[in-house]
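Letters spell out the chain; the tokens describe the backbone. To illustrate:

===
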Amino acid sequence: MSKGFDCNYGESEFNIIKAGIEAIESVLTGNDIHAKERLLYCLD
């Protein structure tokens, strides 16, 4: 995890999950490490 790990996921992450695998893939292949961490934490 990055030093600035933000475990406060919310509606944005739920919307990504609802949007499906393409939206999830977009986050996970993107450059925003904090967005990746929040999404993975939410999925856990």
Notes: Helices lie at 11-19, 21-28, 33-43. The mean pLDDT is 91. The first helix runs from residue 11 to 19.
